[in-house]
Amino acid sequence: MMRLAILGASGHGKVVADAAGLAGWDEVVFFDDAWPGLTQNGPWAVVGDTAALLKDVKGFDGVVVAIGNNRIRQAKQRELAASGAQIVSVIHPASVISEYAMVGAGSVVFANAVINACADVGEGCIVNTGAIVEHDCMLGEFAHVSPNSVLAGGVKIGALSWLGACASVRQLIEVGNGAVVGMGAVVTKDVPPGVTVVGNPARVLGASI
Question: Does residue 102 sit in helix, strand or coil?
Answer without folding.
Answer: strand
